[in-house]
Amino acid sequence: MIAYILKRLSIGIATLIVASIVVFSVLEIVPGDPAQLMLGMNATEDALAALREQMGLNQPLVMRYLDWAGGLLRGDFGQSFTYSSPVIDLIAERAAVSLPLAVIALVMSTAIAIPVGLFAASRRGKAGDAVAMGAAQFGVAVPNFWFALILIYVFAVWLRLVPAGGFPGWEAGLWAGVKALLLPAIALALPQAAILARVTRSALLEVLGEDYIRTARAKGMPRRSVLWRHALRNAMIPVLTILGLQFAFLLAGTIIIENVFYLPGLGRLVFQAITQRDLIVVEGVVMLLVASVIIVNVIVDLCYALVDPRLRTR
Amino acid sequence: MTAQDHTAQDGTGAFIRLAFANRSFLAGFVITVLIAAMALLSFVWTPYDVTAIEMGQRMRGLSWVHPFGTDHFGRDILSMIMVGSRNSIAVAIVAVVIGMGLGVPLGCWAAARGGWVDEALMRFNDLVFAFPALLSAIMITAIFGPGALNAIIAIGIFNVPVFARVARAGALSLWPREFILAARAAGKGKTLITLEHILPNIASMLLVQGTIQFALGILAEAGLSYVGLGTQPPMPSWGRMLFDAQTRMMVAPHLALFPGMAIVVTVLGLNLLGDGLRDVLDPKLRRER
Amino acid sequence: MTMWKSVLAATAMALATSTAAMAQRTDLVVGVVLEPPHLDPTAGAAAAIDEIVYANIFEGLTRIGPSGEVQPALAESWEISDDGKVYTFKLREGAKFHDGTDFDAEDVKFTLDRARADDSTNAQKGLFEAIETVEVVDPATVTVTLENPQGSFLYNMGWGDAVIVAPESAETNKEKPVGTGPFKFDNWAKGSSITISKADDYWGEPAHLDKAEFRIIPDAAAAVPALLTGDVQAFPQMPAGDALPQIEADSRFEVVIGATEGETILSTNNKKAPFDQLKVRQAIAHTLDREAIIAGNGSGYGTPIGSHFSPANEAYVDLTDTYPHDIEKAKALLAEAGFEDGIKATLKLPPPAYARDGGQVVAAQLREIGIELEIIPVEWAQWLDQVFKQKDYDLTIVSHTEPNDIGIYARDDYYFQYDNPAFDKVMEELEVTSDQAKRNELYKQAQKIIADDAVNGYLFQLPKIGVWDAKLEGLWENSPIQANDLTKVQWAE
């Protein structure tokens, strides 16, 4: 068991290192000179040279990678070229929008998907199942940014119940902040809920087909309590896996949604940083997202191993 | 995955009968054919020239002359949706072809060889999956410049591990089977067995995965074009049309309606087709039905 | 549903009137499109920096007023020697930086020496090139000696890049700007807003507002609702897009279409075939239909221009009829140049709507005479690198927002790759002329030369679409320099 954990962890770390090299080198070949971008069209050649020196752009590539990677380990993500403040501060500020957004969306999608999946599974083959799964089929096909536009039109432009975009900051009060995140969270959550509802239904049906459930039914246990007591608990394993993966996906999915709603989150930060050639910010955020995916995967794998010892020998 | 070794031509007639009895498949098939027909038609005929700018006709509502109205340059939205369809389809198909072309050989190779090849492939998969697809696509297009070609590459790369995984899983489950063992005993090489026995048997799984990735590719292309990194004007694209519509929601909400519906219908059709195919091809589900 | 809406509207009205009745308002939320990368105007080219700090937080020796005129600022008055080389500035006494330190002649010397030093990262280092020495005479007097007379020196000292900074705070101005202006910096919530408030003991007339917030709202989809709901009370430059007529019809708001210094042009690579041929460039000029391009530029507003000069400037001449819209003539010219079969070329478009949207109209127009343009969208970083630096382009659309910048046509190796000794001579003469009437005459000649040569396709002057609450007073109508000057802004009684 310990050997397995160690192996899984070391693979995770190796993946992280390779990923950091990929991220760093990919961004190094991005065309465009950050110094020229900051100083604009009238900049003189020596002003540009002075700025490049100041930003450390003149050092050799390998040195810069080692500097950067070493900094990451110490929690130092470097200094943003354009914002001239530490990258980690920028990330922390923006995560204060993206993280709550992803969490709210995750809670919403779970709160919608599990009951719908349960309902559909319990009505398998009946009209209710068909309607629920038809709706889910539709939900999977809707691009979240289009759904976001429709939400904006209905709730912000037409009914004027919530702001159409922007974020007042948490200092404006909890409710004001949550209110600004409501529409984006719905836009993110619904397509995810559709996927999750389908997974829940099929996982439940799979479990319901297994022998011990049939036995329980044969012993005269009502269908409803079989569903609740046995099936749901066992079906939660695949559902939780998807949930874990979806969280990382949601964090990345906020990129487009944040641009639709003009939320100052991580996605907008990356987007702006890419166009302004603020490479160190892009590298920091991408590494953070990549690391979170890898860590979630490792945790999920370890959980599997705990639940199902057969997998350890894989 | 069927119990016996069967080659593609076996039971084609039975398959067609079964498939068209499946409502999901039928609906998906009809929608997909209609969209494809629209895309093909756009090569020879559209109601208007999609590159002709007519400032006097901008943002007209629905009418007999312009059934879906006109956009902010006075271009006919119906024509743009028609031309946009071939663009979406082309990007998604080529991305699937890239994914299959690289992923399937990789997956089969890993399953046949096992050992370090298999391990290396799995680690490569882990690595690619660790990058949020959308973020990486944005990075790729930011480096090489926005455009349909780079969108295809960005989407295609993320299809590779998906197909590699499906092919590997399918192949691994086949290798211990008796008919494969028999073939090996007869002295056939691994490559030949893969071509003759493994591939035909995993083809149905790959086909189902193909339709799913096709649908995802359409969504991804729309997303990239929406943020301005996919297909570029004057070539119309659904995602780009939604971007242009967004700032004009106040005055002309219909601009956002039709491109969005086009995406939903296409993706829905492909997903239904994929679901139907799976039902028809997966004997376990078929038995329970 | 309608009932709901009217109830909501009524409550909103009630709230609005009750607050207004209490006292004169002294707070303001201003919407801006772009977030500045940092807040030090002496270390970056971004207009977004000046749009927050110019005149509000930082002041220079001189400043540019609402109509583009030079006004005294930290220099109370000045004298110019007869040879035009020595400027003696008499400084304000009693001016203080927001951190409490006094402003004096040493700060002026520090600022000007820092801007022209070898390791300077000033984006407009050229403004200071003529300076030979800066000497402190006494704490309230500075003399600046120029290498040769420069007609625009006082104007140059009014740029945001020439504001006076203190040695104590110069290094930290990017994050926490410390100036001498009537407002001091409060807070910057990255990605959403920047807040400033009235400074204590300002040397001049104090600001009317106690507090102002610049809220970053990049797009019409968010800007219009923010204005309509009253969250934001002023957009000096509003990305209203096609929603503008709706706002104009609303009596709560005032819409002011002003002028900027942004000449929006179809920049042409004058050394790259076939655009090195005058006839090809003339054919393009005959084809461009400015009205249609303006209608499609994302805002629908803009003043047509026929040369590289702001219509707001007194030396402006209208040259839009140099090459009137005439497709047949254009085709004939193209044929004469040997291109009756058409031309294939690229059009690189930077991100702003005037380029990305306007570019599609330009491409559609040029297609009429057989010039097929492949549209290549580029980010600013790529534009600066490929177009501006490497001159790897055929055509591009860009707005030149620096004030009074016709001199770029005389620069060696500027990205238009234009070279005309006659034009250079006019510019040289201008450089040593300080008589305003003579300068205007020279400016007129210069405009004419580049219009005749059809160096670039001259499209329109970028408009300043100001939208604000009808009760607000004192915001600038035009934008002769990048600034959102709030020093005179107040709410009407």
Give the gist of this structure.
Chain A has helices at residues 2-28, 34-39, 45-55, 61-73, 87-122, 127-141, 144-158, 174-208, 211-218, 223-261, 266-275, 279-307.
Secondary-structure map:
The complex is a heterotrimer of chains A (314), B (289) and C (493).
Chain A (H helix, E strand, L loop, with lengths): L1 H27 L5 H6 L5 H11 L5 H13 L13 H36 L4 H15 L2 H15 L15 H35 L2 H8 L4 H39 L4 H10 L3 H29 L7
Helix pairs in contact in A: 1-12, 5-6, 5-8, 5-10, 5-12, 6-8, 7-8, 7-10, 8-10, 10-11, 10-12, 11-12
Chain B lengths: L11 H10 L1 H22 L32 H37 L1 H16 L2 H12 L3 H27 L3 H8 L4 H37 L11 H9 L7 H28 L1 H6 L1
Helix pairs in contact in B: 2-3, 2-10, 3-4, 3-6, 3-8, 3-10, 4-6, 5-6, 6-8, 8-9, 8-10, 9-10
Chain C lengths: L1 H21 L4 E6 L14 H7 L8 E3 L5 E3 L2 E6 L5 E6 L13 H12 L14 E8 L2 E6 L6 H4 L26 E7 L3 E6 L12 E6 L3 H9 L5 E2 L8 H5 L4 E16 L9 H10 L2 H6 L7 E2 L22 H10 L6 E7 L3 H15 L3 E7 L2 H10 L5 E6 L20 H11 L4 H17 L4 E13 L2 E2 L16 E2 L2
Parallel strand pairs in C: 1-10, 14-15, 14-16
Antiparallel strand pairs in C: 2-3, 4-5, 5-7, 6-7, 8-9, 9-10, 11-17, 12-16, 12-17, 13-17, 18-19
Q: What is the arithmetic mean of pLDDT of chain C?
A: 89
| Helix and strand run of chain A | HHHHHHHHHHHH
**Shape label of chain A:** flat
The CATH class of the largest domain in chain A is Mainly Alpha
How many DSSP E strands of chain A? Answer: 0
Major sheet summary line of chain C: 7 strands, mixed
Supply the CATH superfamily name of the largest domain in chain A: MetI-like
List keywords for this structure.
heterotrimer, A: 314 residues, mainly alpha, MetI-like fold, 2 domains, B: 289 residues, 11 helices, disordered N terminus, disordered C terminus
Give a written overview of the molecule.
The complex is a heterotrimer of chains A (314), B (289) and C (493). Chain A is 78% helix and 0% strand. Chain A is an all-alpha fold. Chain A has two domains: 2-74, no CATH class; 96-308, MetI-like fold (Orthogonal Bundle). The longest helix of chain A has 39 residues, at 223-261. Chain B has eleven helices and no strands. Chain B is elongated. Chain C is of the alpha+beta class. Chain C folds into three domains: 27-33 and 176-258 and 464-491, 3-Layer(aba) Sandwich (D-Maltodextrin-Binding Protein, domain 2); 61-168, Dipeptide-binding Protein, domain 1 (Alpha-Beta Complex); 261-463, Dipeptide-binding Protein, Domain 3 (Dipeptide-binding Protein, domain 3, Roll). In chain C, strands 11, 12, 13, 14, 15, 16 and 17 form a seven-stranded mixed β-sheet that branches. A four-stranded mixed β-sheet of chain C has the order 1-10-9-8, covered by helices on one side. The longest helix of chain C has 21 residues, at 2-22. Classes of the chains: A mainly alpha (314), B mainly alpha (289), C alpha+beta (493). Chains A and C meet through helix 2, helix 3, helix 5, helix 7 and helix 11 of A and helix 1, helix 5 and helix 11 of C.
